Amino acid sequence: MPKLKTHQATAKRFAKTKTNKLRRRKAGQDHFNSRESGKTTRNKRRDIMAHSADAKNIRSFMPYN
Question: Which DSSP helix (H) or strand (E) runs through 24?
């Protein structure tokens, strides 16, 4: 059986943690951030875990990661 290809866009957006959870960046960090409060800006710097319901689908795009 041939090797499966990793979906590179998914592999760049998600990282697997030691406990096999998927870590991702928060959205909306690119521009228009000056109007937001300092609390919102600080919270956007943190990585968050992908929702567990989506994790199985996301992992299918990354078979070897």
Answer: strand 22-25
Going from N- to C-terminal start, the domains of the chain cover: 8-61
Q: Which residues of 29-48 are buried (b: 16+ CB within 10 A; e: fewer)?
A: eeeeeeeeeeeeeeeeeeee
Helix (H) or strand (E) holding 22: strand 22-25
Question: If DSSP codes are grouped into helix, strand and coil, which group holds residue 63?
Answer: coil
What's the CATH architecture for 8-61? Irregular (4.10)
- CB contact at 8 A, 37 and 60: no
- Amino acid letter, residue 50: A
- Kindly report, residue by residue over 4-44, the tens digit of the pLDDT: 999 999 999 999 999 999 999 998 888 998 999 999 999 99
Q: Could you give the CA distance from residue 37 to residue 2 in angstroms, rounded to a whole number?
A: 51
